[in-house]
């Protein structure tokens, strides 16, 4: 049996070698189709099904919906349902060196994050509880990507100093490739959460007014998620009841919900899933078009080789062996196309991440067994889709009639089949064109959505003063000078500064509205409330109209005045004017 397989394999190689143009056309068509499909199926797998990289026993790791540091401490110190509890919060940082200021994606994380997730360092070590404390040493763990970019992957990076946010940090370790903690975004720096500077000061670690961090925990042996939920709820309610001065951020978590980490990550990726699924569907249609095209080429090749097949049939070759021989030839072509498609998928995946899934490190699937399995599955489906039918039809040969020169009827039959395949290709192409038109129309409609801003001719500039070592006082003194200099640039009509680059900041402050918070039946706001500090003229600069009242002016500096949006006004003062009313922020 093995001798027959080897003989057929050699015969298939010889036949293909005689038709290099045919081979190139088929392999290129399949490589494009398979590459597109593998790319998008890999992205969908990464967003929906792939567990976090380097996390051990991910089914036992839970996301706990509490957002303040005291709530985290209560859970860490009192929960028995968890073998470990960890806190983390992403935050942008800057690295300063003689070459300039480099932005870096940072993750403030408790020392317990690494054992809770079960990850090991690639190089060096992770920081410990003795280092993760107020006033502790400044140590940092590098993400794999930053280690490669900045130090070329050199082991000598351990022990070096790095100036982050104006302070010197000692590099003690390197995280493994692809490790992003419990989140989806890439991470360049892992820093102890209690030694990091906070805009809100040390109160961010002691007050329940600041909602800013995420919590993950590992279930203890024999404990279910439901049991952990019950205990976490009791601890959460007890801690908040004892803190009578707490002003909860609305609609901050009112309950310590416990859910699997995989589900929480899937919710984080929700905004990217529809686009990914749509592109996966498009890629599948492209692959089907390629399969129809290749099937037509194989049928045409079968017509040309019918005399050869008739001779083999006359010599006693059974129909099954003829079909297997032709299917083996298709499998070799599809395998070459699959290899090319795998290479294209690595390049295509980089484009998808750069332009559609920016900031989602989970979409950067490594070349591992899962990706290879997806490629093999797509290639196998391609072999059946484009090779099985042509092989069966070509093997169904009447040796006597073909050798007697009566193959015209068969050729006419194959011509009809090719016409059917051509119609199928046109139908699939029509589906692709219609889908692309609908997608383009959706993008156009999205651009027409009223965002409450008019951002035409508006330029956003990031200023990394904290990373350059500026104190808060120096920052405040520098802002007016920056605005004055920018205003003199030709073509600049107005300029303003915000602490959040138009979007709300990374930390939510607790607030309340005296006399309005306890109104029965009042539903919470459907979005996390954000507070941004801005200079006078900010709203006019971004093109946001003031519907009632006025914007900030220079005379407002130092005064406790606030501008709210329309939804906030309707939430607390429906049908009334909010002007002159009070909002209590923090204390």
What is the compact description of this entry?
The protein contains 17 helices and 14 strands. With 587 residues, the chain is α+β, with helices and mostly antiparallel strands. A hairpin with a 2-residue loop joins strand 6 and strand 7 (167-174).
Structural overview:
It contains 17 helices and 14 strands. Helix 2 crosses helix 12.
Strand and helix layout:
Layout: H1 2-17, H2 20-49, E1 61-65, H3 69-78, E2 82-97, E3 100-109, H4 113-117, E4 123-124, E5 139-142, H5 144-151, E6 161-164, E7 167-174, E8 189-192, H6 203-206, E9 210-211, E10 214-219, H7 225-242, E11 257-260, H8 261-268, H9 273-304, H10 306-314, H11 319-355, H12 369-395, H13 399-403, H14 408-447, H15 472-487, E12 508-509, E13 511-512, H16 538-541, H17 566-572, E14 584-585
Parallel strand pairs: 3-8, 5-7
Antiparallel strand pairs: 1-10, 1-11, 2-3, 2-6, 2-10, 4-7, 5-8, 6-7, 9-12, 13-14
